[in-house]
Amino acid sequence: MNNNIRSTNILKFFPNSVYKRVLVETVLDKVNDEGFGITMEREKVFINPKIVRHLDIKVGDVIEALIAPNDKTKADSTPWTVCHISMTKVLPVEAPEEILSERQIEVSIEERITELLQKPENEYPHRVGEISEKLGIHTDQVQLALQRMHNAGDIWEAKIERKGTQDRASYVLWALDDELFSVECE
User: Fold this and answer.
1) 0.90 exceeded by the pTM?
2) Which of 34, 55, 90 is the last residue of a domain?
3) Strand-pair category, 88-90 with 80-82
4) Shortest CA distance to 134 belongs to which of 174, 101, 87, 180?
5) Contact predicate 63/24, CB 8 Å
6) Domain presence at residue 97
7) What is the dihedral angle through the alpha carbons of 147, 151, 157, 160, rounded to the nearest 10 degrees?
8) What DSSP string describes 19-38?
9) What is the pLDDT of residue 93?
10) Which distant-in-sequence residues (6+ apart) come within 8 Å of 173 by Cβ?
11) Whole-angstrom distance, CA of residue 9 vs CA of residue 144
12) What span, in angstroms and rounded, lies between the C-alpha atoms of 176 and 122?
């Protein structure tokens, strides 16, 4: 499956998710392999046993993960849960604090997208690949940032289909203003 599609689909299932750096404090390796960590804001995070096993997460590891609000019944004690294996990585031990988390990178990508699309020469609907190319940023990261911007109401999305029977759009266009999608005839 295309990583771009997978990332976008994951965000649709977890609309309130954010990237956070998490220090792993507990791994119940003798019980069921559940893990628990804490964000830099001192909020507790649950780590699913499948993720713990797959990534071989240990106490003391620092991970960067897409986390979402936990189930309401558990949110009082552990407000966050790690969303998905593909959106989680264990940072190397020597990773300096100055390394930006993926969430911080996305925020700056969102700002860069806005700056790019506000330039007079770019005031037209763009495909994600075109934005990615102009910014020199990987398409997956641009797609995630665009989806977040769209969820926040900061950008317009137009899905173009060649046939009315299609399940998926042939391509998607993005613009800061809905008027950019209208065609003016003289």
Assistant:
1) no
2) 90
3) unpaired
4) 174
5) yes
6) no
7) 70
8) EEEEEEEEE-TTTT--EEEE
9) 65
10) 125, 126, 127, 157, 158, 160, 181
11) 10
12) 10
> Which residues touch 111 (CB under 8 Å, ≥6 apart)?
none
- Give the phi and the psi of residue 108 in degrees, each rounded to 5: -70, -30
Q: What is the CATH number of the domain that holds 127?
A: 1.10.10.10
130 shares its domain with 74 = no
Measuring CA to CA, how many Å separate 90 from each of 81, 101, 112, 120, 123?
16, 12, 27, 41, 39
Give whole-number Cα distances, 74 to 5, 11, 14, 42, 90, in Å: 30, 21, 17, 16, 25
User: Which residues of the chain carry a pLDDT beneath 70?
Assistant: 1-15, 93-108, 185-186
Give the C-alpha separation, 56 to 90, whole Å. 9
Enter the DSSP assignment of 126. B
**Residue that finishes a domain, picked among 23, 57, 90:** 90
* Same-domain check for residues 125 and 177: yes
Q: For residue 162, which amino acid is it?
A: R
Question: Is residue 99 helix, strand or coil?
Answer: coil
Residues 119 and 81 in one domain: no
Half-sphere exposure for 122 (CA within 13 Å, toward CB): 18
